[in-house]
Amino acid sequence: MSFAALAKFAMELPGATQDIKWGADWVASVGGKMFFVGGPHPDQWTHCSIKVDDHRFLELTGLPGIAPAPYAARYHWVAVSDPKALPLSELKALVKRSHGLVAGKLPKKLRLSLGIEA
């Protein structure tokens, strides 16, 4: 599994868009809000960051290869530096949940226009 596989999965989620931020990080967003970050771009990725539920933050950051995300830990983002830290199915579930957490805070009208149910 590679981080690029997670990026491909992220782009299949409703309303997902991509761009490059800070000159080196690939970012997946929904409604203009980030939900998945990977980098460095365009080189082979060394890490990715995902927003997680509050109650999962301590659990996940206690695992080898997963740490609080720099600059975003207070918002419950984790940085995954080892693509084998969790099974691919669980990493995909975390990306999908991150998308849901971010999309859930968007205005209802925007969510509906992106094809995301309320």
TrEMBL record:
Pfam annotation, one family: YjbR
Top-level lineage group: Bacteria
Signal sequence interval, chain numbering: none
Record carries keyword DNA-binding: yes
Entry keyword annotation includes DNA repair: no
Gene Ontology molecular function, alphabetical: DNA binding
Record keywords, A-Z: DNA-binding
Cross-referenced Gene3D superfamilies: 3.90.1150.30
PANTHER family, per the entry: CYTOPLASMIC PROTEIN (PTHR35145:SF1), CYTOPLASMIC PROTEIN-RELATED (PTHR35145)
Protein known as: DNA-binding protein (MmcQ/YjbR family)
Source organism (scientific name): Roseateles saccharophilus
Taxonomy of the source species: Bacteria, Pseudomonadati, Pseudomonadota, Betaproteobacteria, Burkholderiales
